Amino acid sequence: MTDSMKVLIVGAGPAGLSLAMHLKHLGVTPTIIDKAKQHDQNSGGVFLQGQSLISLGYSMSERLSKQGNAITAGTIRSKSKELFSFDLTDLPGQFFAPMTISQFKIEQELIAELSRLGVEIQWGHELRELTQNEQGCEVSIKAKDVETSKFDYVVGADGFDSFVREAAGFGIVEPSNPGEWIVANINLRSSGLESSKVQMSIHEGRLTALFPLDPQGNFRIIRNSLSGDHTKPEYWADALAEFGVFELPEVHWSNRYTVFEKYSPQLRTGRVFLVGDAAHAHTPIGGQGMNLGLLESANLAWKLSMVAQGADDDLLDIYSEERSKVAISSFAKSNIVFRLIVTKSGLLQKLRDIFISSSKALSPVRDYLGASLRGEDEVYPAGGINREFFDSVQVSDYRELPEDQDIDNFFKGMKAGSQFSVYNEKLNSLVDDNAFTALLFDGREKTDDGRARVLAAYEFLNSQPLMKAYVLSEEDEPYKHLDNFILDPNMHLHNQLHASMESVYIIRPDMHIGFRSAPIDIPAIEAWWDDLLSGETE
Hints:
Layout: E1 7-10, H1 14-25, E2 31-34, E3 47-48, H2 50-55, H3 58-67, E4 69-70, E5 73-78, E6 81-87, E7 99-100, H4 103-117, E8 121-123, E9 126-133, E10 136-142, E11 146-151, E12 153-156, H5 163-168, E13 179-187, E14 197-203, E15 206-212, E16 218-224, H6 237-241, E17 250-259, E18 262-263, E19 268-269, E20 272-274, E21 280-281, H7 288-308, H8 317-341, H9 346-359, H10 363-374, E22 387-390, H11 392-395, H12 407-411, H13 425-430, E23 436-441, H14 448-462, E24 467-473, E25 485-487, H15 492-496, E26 503-507, E27 513-518, H16 522-534
Parallel strand pairs: 1-2, 1-12, 2-8, 5-14, 12-20, 22-27, 23-24, 24-25
Antiparallel strand pairs: 3-7, 4-7, 5-6, 9-10, 10-11, 13-16, 13-17, 14-15, 15-16, 18-21, 19-20, 23-26, 26-27
Helix pairs in contact: 1-4, 1-7, 3-4, 7-8
């Protein structure tokens, strides 16, 4: 791997820190600066989607999951009446559930990991100037003195008031009026509220959300602003009464702030990129900002690392193409939902409550909600760098398989562009952000030609940079001599990915499916990889 690429990350929040970690894992040592003098203990969000957690890599996910509070249920109320409830325990779920965990703890773990990797965060360093040309970026950074440096690329992870966004000339869309919010951390020692349940109340244009932080009665409470002293326990009495809680809370921390919802339609201009709150600002209810930022960082990191390995710079355009669509879509959905929830129209309130109440019995609604909470609803377009190939002639050899094991079932599996969401600890442990991961399944019906294709694909893929291939089979021969061989005696791992026939999945470092084929199509794999390196998207 090469470490010659110079990348400056401006901002040491979740997006900037995770980007730095991913880059270092992938062989690029970044420079990361933040104008703050030290790590802020009162930093932001608390809700982490399962897929965002997985994007941080398996070992980091394990560490954070032990510190977080798993969310498995939730309710929506109106005038103290329950309109909607959901239970994630009876829905298909991923290995890591959505959770509440303070942004501070996430940042702590990322800072510790960067320290272990030898990446120092330069606190108290402020970006003052940024210019760019075809050769790179020139920046002026103030610490004790102002110093000028050159970088190949600059990433703005510097939050809502991003200097990078303004200096690089990114466009911004501001579709809505600002909204005032009160956010507080409180303790309710004897409330009896469940520590695994998120609760929301909508009443006369006011929205209140209660997020449990742990089993000890600590909660994050959010409401669109009302007058009064939010530092006092009495301020929260009416809000808590909507959840059937009549004790006054201990208020550990609270803040009133204004959210100007906005987003940048493009996340790249020249050699400058945006991630996280620098690219988009949301209402705090859905926790979109932190989750989007983590997924953006995972997406950008592997593309930058491949350019460092010699891939064409055009590959970086795909970062903006993939992630801006997701961010704009998320923004539009949250904006519509929020406006409907806080409407002051009596008629719209009645229609809203009827719709929400009637939806709780509909399984498609529940499934969609579950996927959204877990963060599994992001799908990149198939084609371009996300491809799949099926050979109808060879596939016909598998007609004797049971109906639920044939090619039609494979089609129902995780398609190119979709997120790798598999509910198996073994498979999740194989996939991390250190490389592309290729899973080669030799299937139920084995032939000499099929085994030869598996071995040939294994050798080709493991010879490529940023790639690790595994063979999975229910038999030892002829694979037991391989370094990366997984015995699957009961086809359990095959079935998890609908891979009962000979097939391959290649998972990108950002946990999306980059390529799949059944049977294994080696020329197609080679062509896809060559096009990826050249930045070809067609």
